[in-house]
Amino acid sequence: MRNHLLPGSRSALPALVLAVLTLAASAEPFDGLTLVNPLASNTMRLITNDGRTVNTWHCGKPVSYMPYLMPDSTVWRPGLHPAPQLRPGACGGLIERYNWAGDVIQSFEWSGPDHIQHHDIQPLPNGNILVLSLDRYTRAEAEAMGRLDISTDHIWSEMIVEYDPFADSVVWEWRLWDHLVQDVDSTKPNHGVIAEHPHRLDINAGMIHSTGDWIHANAIDYCAEEDLV
């Protein structure tokens, strides 16, 4: 596992849990306000349960995908990067903080030749931001990890980054690529019996889309009580 821990950083998240939850559906919304930003829209609205608009933000870029209203009435919002080097679906790469009046008061980018933010972020109690990111590897790198039957020139894996927007730096990172197992090639370092490694993912599980999309998450959350992602 490759971690980036910076001296004086606010925290390093030590544990990550991948889980499937079954939730009971409710016919009624939660009490309070709801922040709404339709897909491909530049406009966010804070609405009441009876449909009244409390505030509207007109943003410069479409959303990607989940904005978060903070206790101080600012909003952290992932949006579409103006010039992304990668263009897979559901990606953004530009994370901005808006005040109540709609001004951008803080921003950072998570976009490059081998990574880009997608779907979700998660503001943390310490002021840092968890970023859900695609993590690009070449076909040769995938084959070196034991992947079979790959016809694309690259493969998308998953990555989570804790980013300090005040220091403009990575505090911690977790890569799925560091937690893979395979049982087809004993000469490779990640070889093992799949059933004996429930904490690792079989790199040959699932198909690879023609775009290189092999696996991705759609949301991220943080449990402060257990210090788990």
Layout: helices, strands, pairs:
Layout: E1 34-36, E2 43-47, E3 53-58, E4 68-69, E5 75-80, E6 93-98, E7 104-109, E8 115-123, E9 129-138, H1 139-144, E10 154-164, E11 169-175, E12 180-181, E13 201-202
Parallel strand pairs: 12-13
Antiparallel strand pairs: 1-2, 2-3, 4-5, 5-6, 6-7, 8-9, 9-10, 10-11
What does this structure look like?
With 229 residues, the protein is an all-beta fold. The protein has one domain (34-202). It is 3% helix and 33% strand. The chain has one helix at residues 139-144, and strands at residues 34-36, 43-47, 53-58, 68-69, 75-80, 93-98, 104-109, 115-123, 129-138, 154-164, 169-175, 180-181, 201-202. Strands 4-5-6-7 form a four-stranded antiparallel beta sheet, with no helix packed on it. Strands 8-9-10-11 form a four-stranded antiparallel beta sheet. A hairpin with a 5-residue loop joins strand 2 (43-47) and strand 3. The protein is elongated. The two termini are 16 Å apart. The model is unreliable at 1-14 (pLDDT under 50).
